[in-house]
Structure formats: C-alpha cells, structure tokens
Amino acid sequence: MSHYTLNDITRPSGGFAMLAVDQREAMRLMFAAAGEPAPVGDRVLTDFKVNAARILSPYASAILVDQQFCYRQIIEEKAIAKSCATIVAADEFIPGNGIPVDSVIIDKKIDPEAVKRDGAKALKLLVLWRSDEDPQQRLEMVNAFNQLCHASGLLSIIEPVVRPPRRGDKFDREQAIIDAAKELGDSGADLYKVEMPLYGKGPQQALLAASQRLNEHINMPWVILSSGVDEKLFPRAVRVAMTAGASGFLAGRAVWSSVIGLPDAQAMLRDISVPKLQRLGEIVDEMMAGR
C-alpha cells in the first residue's frame, strides 16, 4: 500500500502553501454578514467552494475541502488542479451554546479508503482545546485519527484551536496555544496546524519570540492558519512564523474572505484572491530557500 509523505502536499521548495475551503456554518455566517439574503442556502456555499477550488488550486500545494458542502461536487467536476493535492476534513462539528462549533468528533461518515481512491492525500482533524476539559480524551481522539489516516496510507493533519474554558472566564489565549502545543505537539500526527500567536499583531520582535516559543513545543512540521489574523498582516505572519520554524500555511480567510458577497465571485477570486495566494506562495518559497 502506498503511504503518502509530506512532500505530496508541499511546493517543490518543501514549503506548504495550502488553501482551506472547509469552513462550514462559519462560511454561511460570513455570507449573511456580507449581505446575502437570509437564509443563506447550501447551494451558495457549494458554488463558492467549487469556484474557489477551480480558480485558486493551481496556486496552492494542497486544498482542504469538507464533505458536507463540496467534496463530491469538487471531485465530480474535477475542479482541483492536477498540481494541487486534496485534503479532506474528517471532523464533525457539533453546534451548541450559541456557536457553530462547540465540540468536535471524528466524522463517522469518513471513509479513508474511498477518499484515497478519489485521489486525496491527507485528512484533517480540528481539535478544540480547553484548559478545563480532559486532555486524555483529546489525545485518544488524536490517536484514533492518526490510526485512521495511517492505516490507509493517508497523512494526518491536526488543528488544535484554543477556546475559553467551559467554566470561569479567565482565558489567556497565548498561554493556551502554548499549552495545547505542549500536549499535542508530539502526538504522532504528520503536520500541526496552529493559530498565529498574538493574532499576527504587534511588533515583529514580539511576534517572533512568541512563534519561537511555540516552535519549541511542536515536534513535527507545523503551519499557521489565518482565522483571526487581519489579511493585511497575514503575509508578515507567514514570514515570522517560518523564521521561527514553521514550514508554511494552511489558510482560507486571508485568501478569499474579502470576496465573499461581492458580485461576480469568479472574477473577484481571479483578480483579488489569486494574487494574494501567489504572493503567499512566493514568501513560503523564499523562506524555504533561506534554510
């Protein structure tokens, strides 16, 4: 059985320039906020995701898609460029307490053998990290996920995202990101997808120090995500994180969020999002060349 390696989802430089379009209810909320008439239908999300895949995948080393809204359509329409690997989200988001993703489990509907036959190279799992929830449960879920991936020769990408504790209101996001990395940074996955320290804001030196601290606790290659980071700051965030030891990015919002809700989404993706993704890819290559 063939086992994929990280080289299967990188650019020739060895860096990751990966695009996420697996946002689910969060994307529906983005369309509503941009003035799409309510209720925002599934079709709106599917069309946007398929268009984004078709237009942006030639400039990405891999693209992350979700089963709920777009995987089948993207595969059937051959919307992903041959040069771009496919990653499938294997997480099921459970809403609650007024938020679209209150907890996460491994999606029982995921069939690793089937997605591999379709050409996918990796699966991704979101792991919500709260200081007052059981670390053992998180580790068990990550272990089960790693086994699910590796038994089929797929790569395992974990995405720990920190949340305030269920009880009490004391929440230090920066410390939580470090604590999550201490707990899950050596958990046997192939790639760690992480939130950018300090939301990418502030003096470069402070950002670099925070990223270096994070790097010390992640014992596998890691990439940053763009949620929560101002898209104008994201190119710098990629550069700083890579200076500290990251190997690139897996990001959606920094590339396409500004075109959500604009008329003629296809033209906007071409004119606005393609140059952003190209620029980010160039930064990744440049930083890898410096290693």
From TrEMBL:
What keywords tag this UniProt record?
Carbohydrate metabolism, Lyase, Schiff base
Gene name?
yihT
**Which reactions fall under this protein's catalytic activity?**
6-deoxy-6-sulfo-D-fructose 1-phosphate = (2S)-3-sulfolactaldehyde + dihydroxyacetone phosphate
Q: What does this protein do?
A: Cleaves 6-deoxy-6-sulfo-D-fructose 1-phosphate (SFP) to form dihydroxyacetone phosphate (DHAP) and 3-sulfolactaldehyde (SLA).
EC number, UniProt record: 4.1.2.57
Per the record, the similarity remark reads: Belongs to the aldolase LacD family.
Pfam families (UniProt xref): DeoC (PF01791)
GO: which molecular function terms? lyase activity
Q: How does it assemble?
A: Homotetramer.
Protein name from the UniProt record: Sulfofructosephosphate aldolase
Lineage, opening ranks: Bacteria, Pseudomonadati, Pseudomonadota, Gammaproteobacteria, Enterobacterales
